Amino acid sequence: MPKIIFDVETAGCDFDSLDQISQEYFLKYAKTEEEKEEIRNSMSFYPLTAQIVAIGMLEAETDKGWVFFQSKDDRIKKFTEGKIEFIPGDEKAVLENFWSQLGKCTTFITFNGRIFDCPFIMLRSAILKIKASKNIMPYRYGHAVHTDLQDQLTFYDALRKKFSLHLWCKAFGIKSPKEGGMTGLQVKDYFKQGKFTEIAKYCAGDLQATKELFHYWDKYLKF
User: Is 147 left (phi over 0), alpha (psi -120 to 50) or beta?
Assistant: First the structure.
C-alpha cells in the first residue's frame, strides 16, 4: 500500500465575528496592544475558529497526488498539473475526499502533523458531522503508521528547538515551498481575496518539500 503524505491549509475567522464571551476568553491574559493584536491574528491555528481550505495528499513513491481545496468561484473546475489532481469543493467535500483517499493507505507522513494537521482534521470533521475513516493520532513513539517528521527530526523533542519546514529544507538542501513568495500566514488573506487555486498550488508545494524531507530522513536518520 502507498505511503501518503498529507498537509492542510487553514483560514481563521475574523476575530470581531466572535461573540463577546469568546473574545474575552482569548484576550484575558493579553496585557499589551501588541499581544492583543497577535491573538486577533491567530485564529487560523485553532479548529474551533478556523476552517480547512485545502488538504493535499501525495504518494511518496509515485508522486501521484490530490489537492482538495475550497473554492467559492463556480468557474474553477477540477484540473491537473503533472501527476497532481486539484479538486474544488466546500470544506465538507474537502474532508470527505480526504477520508476516502486515506482509507486506501496504511501508513502516512506529515510535518508537525501530530500537533497541528491531525487534530485539526479530526475536530473539523467532527464539527461537520463527518466520521473519520482511520485513526490519524496513533501511538506517538514510533513511525510504523504515522511518520511525523517534526517528531523524528527533533528526536521527540530531545532537540529543544522546533524548526520550521523551511529551515529543515534549507539545512538539507531541499527547495523550500516558501521560496515561491507565499507562506501559511498569508492563506487567510488569499482565501478572502478569492485566490483559491493559489492556495491549492502552495499546498502542493508543501507536499513536495515534505516528500523530499521524508526521503532524506529515511536515508540518513531512520532506524
Answer: beta
Question: How far is it, in rounded angstroms, from Cα 94 to Cα 106?
Answer: 20
On whether the CB atoms of residues 44 and 10 are closer than 8 A, the answer is: yes
Domain boundaries, the chain: 3-12+45-220
Q: Which CATH number fits domain 3-12+45-220: 3.30.70.100, 3.40.640.10, 3.30.420.10, 3.30.70.890?
A: 3.30.420.10
pLDDT digits (tens, 9 = 90+) for 108-166: 999 999 999 999 999 999 999 999 999 999 999 999 999 999 999 999 999 989 999 99
Strand 65-70 to strand 79-81: parallel, antiparallel, or no bridges (unpaired)? unpaired
Residue 117 sits at the vertex; the CA angle it makes with 42 and 56, to the nearest 5 degrees, is: 110
Q: What is the DSSP letter of 44?
A: G
Q: Copy the grid coordinates of residue 49.
A: 475558529
